[in-house]
Design goal:
The structure holds two protein chains of two kinds.
Chain A: H1 2-6, H2 18-60, H3 79-84, H4 88-120, H5 126-134, H6 141-152, H7 158-166, H8 179-204, H9 208-216, H10 221-249, H11 253-259, H12 274-284, H13 288-316, H14 321-324
Helix pairs in contact in A: 4-8, 4-10, 4-12, 5-8, 6-11, 8-10, 9-10, 10-13, 12-13
Chain B: H1 5-8, H2 11-49, H3 53-56, H4 71-79, H5 82-113, H6 119-129, H7 135-147, H8 155-162, H9 166-177, H10 182-189, H11 194-202, H12 207-223, H13 226-231, H14 239-244, H15 260-280, H16 282-294
Helix pairs in contact in B: 2-15, 4-15, 5-8, 5-9, 5-12, 9-16, 10-11, 12-15
Classes of the chains: A mainly alpha, B mainly alpha.
């Protein structure tokens, strides 16, 4: 793929005219130079703000670094890493994070896909619904969490008030005991519109003829959905799934905002996520080395999960090249 | 046509029509249900921001505030140096967005329109960066910035801006790839440098992409709570942090009880700029999101 991109020689170069050819060659090298010059802000930024911090972070994760102890600096080898497995809080936080991802990602995926499917039919006021559903993603997380806190408040929240109509005296602790469910609600509320817009564009990219041909062959709506719409949408679903898993495993802001929005705030136990635990090690207890080791463990988990999803894609992701063939 | 009519009334067709009608009603049910769940939190927040504090804590909750406390909004703006924090937010969001839109569009242009050895691999890095969990670099970056004395300054936002953002590089690359080649050919014959072609021909033709990118970045920094809470102290911080933390309290109150209705009024004002920006460039924003989302 890369090769085809790189071979663009000027077709109008007359080979006989040496002088002209020379000028063209120098122009080409100056264009190459321009390429490197123009991508340099990103490349330098990538090295200085990406690669170097990663290396520094990796090195520090093998030490007892606490932010200040440059004189008493010690190389601990794998000790920070083996400590993770004795840290019951870390294991608990990891378990909560996995549970959160298992709850949040599928609900988000199914809801945004369903909304896209519905809007892809000839629905009245489609533009209005699309805009309305997208709107929460524009609202800053701080505002969104405030809005939901009002509804979910155990004492004077609207949700408990509504439930109390049927079961008087209900006082469910939504923001503490059920924080995981509440955060899922907030996250899906914020993210469904973005997913919907992306899936909708994907659906509109499906050639109409395919569905029409299926109907002429006597396929039912459900059959054409299962054998045409879903397969053709799998590349989009796949990409969104990968991004959603990666994003949800590093969730930090939502539980913190729910807990009071300070760096030292401690989220409720139900929403004690892995990155929350990491940040507490670093910013509350100054255990930089250990915190970074935790982060690298998370990184490994993210990479492994991504590889698993990529590996599984062989069995369910349908790439468009296949349409060109006869089956 | 008339001959066909009786055949339409077969049991099969009947069933098809019923199932279609059922599907349509379920569709509308989901649509209106979602619309309700989407709008209730926002509406409730606005209503609550107009209540008096004692009315707000009443249970069961009162829907329509009576009397309507418009002065909550006045107090929200004057209780704390609201405009100072607004300025902090605006400054950071603008600086970051201007830089990152400029560099991302330039990098995107280079990937779309120029060729050089290694381009494919470099673009591969951009794409894979879309999938690197950012949290892994945030902490070591903070350690480094702290060591060179850039914490509690706005410098990190400048530097992050200059470094461009993979998502927006991707956005601009897609956009510039779709521009016809003839546009630059003429300029090239005139001997214009690639940078001039980018600056004088491509950028002026990229206004929708520029607006989308600027707004998405601006809204991102405006709403970001993590970076300011890590980097900035209480004076330099942004509205996002001020509104997330207990800011609106009675000076004489030892319990530090939050004045929720004032906070809500402040949060409503804080939410307005991103929403306005979204409505200005709505279609372009959604298209931009689609570009980065469909791959």
């Amino acid at each position: 793929m890369a090769n085809t991109l790189q071979t663009t020689s000027p077709t109008y170069a007359p080979k006989t005219n040496k002088q002209f050819g020379l000028r063209l060659r120098s122009r080409r090298s100056s264009r190459q130079l321009a390429f490197y010059a123009m991508i340099s802000p990103w490349l330098i930024g990538f090295l200085l703000l990406g690669v170097i911090p990663l290396i520094v972070g990796l090195l520090a994760s093998f030490t007892n670094y606490d932010g200040l102890n440059v004189d008493a600096f010690k190389w601990l080898g794998m000790r920070n890493y083996s400590r993770v497995f004795q840290d019951s809080e870390a294991l608990y936080a990891f378990q909560r994070t996995m549970l959160w991802s298992a709850l949040n990602v599928p609900i988000w995926l199914i809801l945004s896909f369903t909304l896209a499917l519905i809007l892809n039919q000839g629905i009245r006021a489609r533009g209005f619904f699309r805009t309305l559903f997208y709107l929460p993603s524009i609202i800053p997380a701080v505002g969104a969490v405030w809005a939901w806190r009002l509804l979910l408040d155990p004492n004077n929240g609207v949700v408990n008030a509504i439930i109390s109509i049927f079961r008087p005296g209900t006082a469910v602790m939504w923001t503490t005991d059920y924080a995981l469910q509440s955060l899922t609600m907030i996250a899906v509320w914020q993210g469904a519109g973005v997913g919907m817009v992306i899936f909708l564009a994907g659906l509109q990219g499906i050639p109409r003829e395919l569905e029409e041909a299926a109907f002429l062959d006597g396929a039912t709506t459900l059959q054409s959905f299962r054998h045409i719409t879903i397969p053709l949408m799998t590349p989009v679903i796949f990409f969104q799934l990968v991004l959603a898993i990666i994003g949800s495993l590093q969730q930090f802001a939502l539980p913190m905002l729910l807990a009071g929005g300070r760096m030292g705030s401690v989220p409720p136990r139900a929403a004690y996520f892995f990155v929350v635990h990491v940040m507490r090690q670093i910013f509350t207890f100054s255990r930089f080395g250990y915190g970074l080791a935790l982060l690298w463990m998370l990184f490994v988990v993210v990479v492994v999960l991504t590889i698993i999803v990529f590996g599984s894609s062989r069995f369910w992701v349908h790439y468009e090249v296949d349409i060109a063939g006869d089956k | 046509m008339a001959a066909l009519t009786p055949t339409v009334r077969t049991p099969q067709a009947q069933r098809d029509r019923t199932s279609k009608r059922l599907r349509t009603s379920i569709s509308y049910l989901i649509l209106y249900g979602t619309a309700l769940v989407i709008s209730v939190p926002v509406i409730w927040m606005i209503l609550s921001s107009l209540k008096a504090e004692p009315e707000f804590i009443q249970y069961p909750p009162i829907v329509i505030p009576n009397p309507v406390r418009w002065d909550n909004y006045f107090h929200a703006l004057t209780w704390i140096p609201y405009f100072k924090y607004t300025w902090n937010s605006t400054f950071l969001a603008t600086i970051f967005s201007l830089f990152t839109v400029f560099t991302s569009s330039m990098v995107g242009f280079a990937f779309a329109r120029l060729d050089a050895p290694g381009k494919g691999k470099l673009f591969g890095i951009v794409v894979s960066l879309l999938m690197v969990p950012g949290i892994v670099t945030i902490i070591p970056q903070f350690v480094i910035f702290a060591k060179i004395g850039l914490t509690n300054t706005y410098w990190p936002w400048f530097l992050w801006g200059i470094a461009a953002s993979p998502f927006h590089v991707f956005l601009f690359r897609q956009f510039f790839t779709s521009i016809p080649k003839e546009l630059e050919d003429a300029a090239e014959v005139d001997g214009a440098t690639p940078f001039r072609i980018f600056w004088q021909i491509f950028l002026p033709n990229a206004k929708p992409a520029l607006a989308t990118s600027f707004i998405l970045n601006f809204v991102g920094v405006w709403g970001d709570w993590l970076a300011p809470v890590i980097y900035l102290d209480d004076v330099k911080t942004t509205l996002a942090v001020k509104l997330a933390t207990p800011t609106y309290v009675n000076p004489g109150d030892p319990s530090g009880h939050i004045l929720v209705t004032l906070t809500l009024a402040a949060a409503v004002i804080y939410t307005i700029p991103p929403v306005i920006m979204f409505f200005i460039a709505q279609r372009n924003i959604m298209e931009g999101v689609v570009t980065t989302g469909l791959k």
